């Protein structure tokens, strides 16, 4: 029997509502992290990539859901491959240990902890468990000595963890909540596993940054939800928990670090953040229509710029091969006609072809063989650190193109 590789839901995963307005249609795309072996005659699966807005709770989301086993059982993304991101999580680990006064008896569980950067930093203070369903990544986490279970987080798994380890003082989920279709099931598991005085701490890309920068490239099949605190607050309350604190963190453009727990009282940070979002119009349909129009305008500007550079005989390469970069390349229809190759520090991706565009991916060492005239910075969310790192390349005449919120040359 053939099992469907995707399905389309007709209700909001945040509130169950059915009044869902289509906002942005990026077309049919392959999985953003499904890199291709150039020696294989491989036909890519493509799925609709269309974002909708719930008129009831204002959750911005995809309704077409690709089977998570296809997306996450083998995963070509390592947290440790990004120096800024790895340091961000190490810093968070130290902060959480201090804020919650962790001791050796306390348990910290990370949902989707990838190769264990955060837990590796915090495990001297407490007991730790990584719940990482990507088999190849889970093996790397184990190789560091971090206890790891290679399963998806569910209420059933939470019961098993509770029986074996007891309740968790902290449950962490960074850049994971956007990946989950069955949010009710995850929150059921969190409520079971979380100690009465514990905290569920999770980071998500902030919708306000997405709307403000017009960063359409942050939309891909792995990211089912694009969160505002407005939508999250309604959802978490429905799930039986309370958001008691929220912080803005400067990662992936701008993200939210959200703290939820049982029998908590919301702090002023929550009220202030909700007021900020109201002022930005994150509860108004017209804000999302403007975002749609901005994405279309940016696409035209990027294609025009790259086409003009090609006509002028300039060599252009892409810096980074992140999932967001593959959305940008495929939405803009960019292939090897306009970009010679991509470089990326993730060893898994090197020697492969980017999904859809089929642009080859190499180690950053490739930059030393031939200096490009221009670099399209696909990992634009790390622009500051990358530009500093590549100061020698820039001093020798290479110019960088930052594509979001609109292409600019530095």
Distance between the termini: 54 Å
Rg for CA atoms: 21 Å
Taking strands numbered 1, 2, ... along the chain, how are they ordered across the largest sheet?
Answer: 8-7-6-9-10-13-12
Class inferred from helices and paired strands: alpha/beta
Number of strands: 19
Low-confidence stretches: none
What is the CATH architecture annotation of the domain at 299-409?
3-Layer(aba) Sandwich
Instruction: Report the sheet-strand fraction.
Output: 15-25%
- Overall shape: globular
Number of helices: 13
CATH topology of the domain at 299-409: Rossmann fold
Q: Kindly provide the name of the CATH class of the domain at 299-409.
A: Alpha Beta
Mean pLDDT across all amino acids: 93
Helix content: 25-40%
Would you mind describing this structure in some detail?
The protein is an alpha/beta fold. The chain has a domain at about 300-410: Rossmann fold. The chain is built from 13 helices and 19 strands. The chain has helices spanning about 70, 85-100, 115-120, 135-145, 155-165, 185-195, 205-215, 230-240, 270-280, 285-310, 325-330, 385-390, 390-395; strands at about 5-10, 20-30, 45-55, 60, 65, 105-110, 125-130, 150, 170-175, 195-205, 225, 240-250, 255-260, 315-320, 340-345, 360, 375, 400, 410. The strands form four sheets. The protein has a seven-stranded mixed beta sheet. Strands 16-15-14-17-18-19 form a six-stranded mixed beta sheet. A four-stranded antiparallel beta sheet has the order 2-3-4-11, covered by helices on one side. Strand 14 (about 315-320), helix 11 (about 325-330) and strand 15 form a beta-alpha-beta unit. The protein is globular and about 65 Å long. The N and C termini lie far apart (about 55 Å). The relative contact order is 0.12. The mean pLDDT is about 95.
